[in-house]
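Troubleshooting: if your tokenizer reports a length mismatch, compare your output against this known-good record of 126 residues.
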Amino acid sequence: MSWQEYVDNNLVGTQQFSQGAIVGLQGGVWAASKGFDVSHAEILALANGFKNPDTVRTNSPLVDGKKYMVVKADERSIYGKLGKGGFCAVKTNQAIVIGVYGEGVQPGSAASVVEKLADYLIANSY
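Known-good structure output:
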């Protein structure tokens, strides 16, 4: 399966997310849903947030140019809220899986989807 298929089928295709991406820890976009533009700087800020969660707690991260309030940050996961939606970002060995959800989606359900995809990628050495 291609990286784009993971985004299309395992993130956006679950109906939990309006947008999603898999990006490299070093800053490159491996695959993203149409119109979802995660910048190099945004990726590096998230990657740094996994190393030092206080950085994203005090300096809310941008994802696709939108500033989110962080509700959870640790060495594996960063969750943010914006209005009635939010994002989930989970680190694997080589990548970050990002899903953005909108109003009507339960944050816990959305987080479960991203966490499971990240676990699958980790189990397959990514």
